[in-house]
Design a protein that fits this description.
This protein has a single domain, classed as Rhopdopsin 7-helix transmembrane proteins (Up-down Bundle). The protein is mainly alpha-helical. It is a multi-pass membrane protein.
Length: 315
């Protein structure tokens, strides 16, 4: 078998199935998904600008929120621009190198966001369970050091995870077919095209991706359960639940598709394209709404930023 695929011509490009069932629907889908892509682009950029420019938001919570907005912006940008271009093209193809790059950055940013959401759970735990000591705990030398190194820690963890996924994929032989049953390159649909048995590689990938997503999700659920169990006062419990609601919503929306896709062998199921659209395109659009819709501090900061901009233009 090994000698057989060595005599085959390696695949130089992949053809993407895309989302459009008919050529007539491509223009309509392009308009819809352009709006869906621009919305998180504007929303996350606005959050980052608001958090970085308002002194009242110089707290660990909003520092983490700014990092989440940045990761969401990067996450949607990995797949959305290529998808939009494919809506305007009759032949949806991607080179082997570009496919591997897309796969790498998808897992790089996705893993970093998982780790960030886990860190945000600790921040909410301290804020709700130890409110009187929140600022002293988070602003200690150790806390400031952790916060200053946080982006590098997240990037390092995401980079290590992504390198494992990409290297395991790139060492597989691809000699045809080259039809990727999705609108972007990801491990499950790409690995099915390998000209060799992928059972062992799949187990390694599932143990990597599945372990990360499942363990982070368990930690998050345990953290929020601990928060609610430790609160005795019904009034404080309702307030704590309200404070955690936005984070719980993001965690549920983000982790459920990831666990569904990456925590089982890839060859036994077909990835639903609607699930892929949900965690690649829709969730980054929802995050700005979820975190700012009921957040009075962010709303006030946006008003101050808008007033400051109007005043500057008036001068």
């Amino acid at each position: 078998m090994e000698q057989l695929w060595r005599n085959q011509t390696p695949v130089g490009e992949f053809l993407l199935a895309g989302l459009s069932p008919t050529p007539q629907s491509q223009a309509a889908l392009f308009a819809v998904f352009l709006l869906v892509y621009v919305s998180p682009l504007v929303g996350n950029t606005l959050i980052m600008a608001t958090v970085s420019s308002d002194p009242c938001l110089c707290t660990p919570m909003y520092f983490l929120l700014g990092n989440l907005s940045f990761l969401d912006l990067c996450y949607s940008t990995v797949t959305a621009p290529k998808m939009l271009l494919d809506f305007l093209s009759d032949r949806r193809s991607i080179s082997y190198q570009a496919c591997m790059a897309q796969l790498f950055f998808l897992h790089f940013v996705g893993a970093a966001e998982m780790f960030l959401l886990t860190v945000m759970a600790y921040d909410r735990y301290v804020a709700i369970c130890k409110p009187l000591h929140y600022h002293s705990i988070m602003n200690r030398t150790l806390g400031r050091t952790c916060m200053s190194l946080l982006p590098w820690d997240l990037d390092g963890g995401g980079f290590l995870h992504s390198m494992v996924q990409t290297i395991l994929t790139m060492q597989l032989p691809f000699c045809g077919p080259n039809w990727v049953d999705n609108f972007f390159c990801d491990v499950p649909p790409v690995i099915k095209l390998a000209c060799t048995d992928t059972y062992v590689v799949e187990l390694l990938m599932v143990s990597n991706s599945g372990l990360i997503s499942t363990s982070c999700f368990i930690i998050l659920v345990a953290s929020y359960t601990t928060i609610l169990v430790r609160i005795r006062s019904p009034e404080v419990w309702r307030k704590g639940l309200s404070t955690c609601a936005s984070h719980l919503t993001v965690v549920t929306l983000f982790f459920r598709p990831c666990i569904f896709i990456y925590a089982q062998p890839f060859s036994i199921f077909s990835v639903d394209k609607l699930v892929s659209v949900l965690y690649n395109i829709i969730i980054p659009m929802l995050n700005p709404l979820i975190y700012t819709l009921r957040n009075k501090e962010v709303k006030s900061a946006r008003r101050r930023l808008r007033t400051k901009g109007i005043t500057s233009r008036g001068r």
